[in-house]
């Protein structure tokens, strides 16, 4: 149920992936973050074939982004994709991206937050003073979601639709084993991002921990969307273990073991991208049954035992409050979003 076993993992990996979900996206705007390669690019190709009014590719590198735009055009024939630059390792870049979209005046029907990085065993910090994977995988994506939420709510009101916000997480959140003392400490996130705390053993588990934080985020956000205006469907998706550039920094024995695992178990990148697309357009009728859910293998699944436990709920709320404090210091518009569009947990 809420546990990850090796046999269950192998079974899921060897189970045939369902065909890609489809929808009519005419006139709608789709945004994919981390779209120039891997799962994000493959998902963008699927969306392009559904003829959205706009397809925005959020990428860090202008050169790689432009190459993705051209490749997308060649492989799908779609000509309305747009490259928007965003560097999740810089809060200023995330804010500029959100400000640009706020001023753009357009609708936003689907937001897929796919970007992530895998930390090495040596601490790497951002210009904002945070451990890189914590900021890229969690804090910046959370900031972007909160900044773009008002536009998604407005889209729902203006067009009588139910926009979807998809947070790409992973089954490795089952493997996260955060220190209880750290969870009980006043400043959990600030400690996690501190260089002194980030030893090589801590960083070895950082990717798993960041994916747990992603699960906490989408569940907490969903829990605070008021019933009276519960128009945006928020969910989290596990694409499964796929061929990915995410692990391109692996070296030595770690790289060799990952190569063997890929040969034996990995889904193709395109197969993994179908999970992202399902979360964005799939489900029965309007996809209401996907609201607030953890999705795996193109169906609603159960998050880890820790996440769904009473203790997990307490930690989730605590992390949410600290995250809001941090992000409100970074961008004052976060406070506006929370006050105007969200309610307390449990609505």
Automatic annotation (TrEMBL):
It holds the Pfam family adh_short. InterPro entries: NAD(P)-bd_dom_sf, SDR_fam. Gene3D superfamilies: NAD(P)-binding Rossmann-like Domain. Coiled coil: none annotated. Keywords: Oxidoreductase. One of its GO terms (molecular function) is oxidoreductase activity. The keyword Oxidoreductase applies. This is WW domain-containing oxidoreductase.
């Amino acid at each position: 149920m809420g546990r990850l076993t090796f046999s269950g993992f192998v079974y899921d990996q060897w189970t045939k992936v369902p065909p890609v979900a489809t929808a009519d996206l005419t006139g709608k705007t789709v945004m994919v973050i981390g779209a120039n390669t891997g799962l994000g690019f493959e998902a963008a190709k699927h969306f392009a074939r559904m003829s959205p009014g706009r397809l925005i590719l959020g990428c860090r590198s202008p050169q790689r982004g432009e190459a993705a735009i051209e490749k997308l055009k060649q492989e799908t024939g779609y000509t309305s994709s747009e490259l928007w630059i965003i560097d999740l390792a810089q809060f200023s870049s995330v804010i500029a991206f959100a400000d640009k979209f706020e001023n753009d005046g357009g609708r936003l029907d689907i937001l897929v937050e796919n970007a992530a990085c895998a930390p090495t065993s040596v601490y790497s910090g951002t210009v904002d003073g945070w451990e890189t994977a914590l900021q890229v995988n969690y804090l910046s994506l959370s900031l972007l979601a909160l900044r773009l939420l008002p536009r998604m709510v407005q889209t729902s009101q203006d067009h009588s639709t139910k926009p979807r916000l998809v947070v790409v997480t992973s089954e490795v959140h089952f493997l996260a084993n955060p220190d209880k003392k750290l969870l009980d400490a006043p400043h959990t996130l600030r400690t996690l991002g501190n260089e002194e705390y980030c030893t090589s053993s801590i960083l070895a588990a950082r990717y798993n921990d960041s994916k747990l934080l992603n699960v906490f985020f989408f569940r907490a956000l969903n829990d605070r969307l008021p019933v009276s205006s519960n128009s945006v469907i928020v969910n989290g998706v596990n694409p499964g273990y796929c061929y990915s550039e995410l692990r391109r920094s692996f070296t030595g024995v770690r790289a060799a073991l990952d190569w063997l695992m890929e040969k034996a178990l990995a889904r193709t990148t395109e197969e993994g991208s179908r999970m992202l697309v399902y979360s964005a357009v799939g489900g029965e009728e309007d996809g209401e049954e996907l609201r607030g859910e953890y999705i795996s293998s193109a169906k609603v699944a159960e998050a880890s035992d820790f996440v769904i436990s009473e203790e997990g709920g307490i930690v989730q709320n605590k992390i949410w409050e600290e995250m809001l404090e941090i992000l409100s210091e970074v961008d004052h518009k976060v406070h506006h979003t929370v006050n105007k569009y969200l309610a307390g947990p449990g609505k």
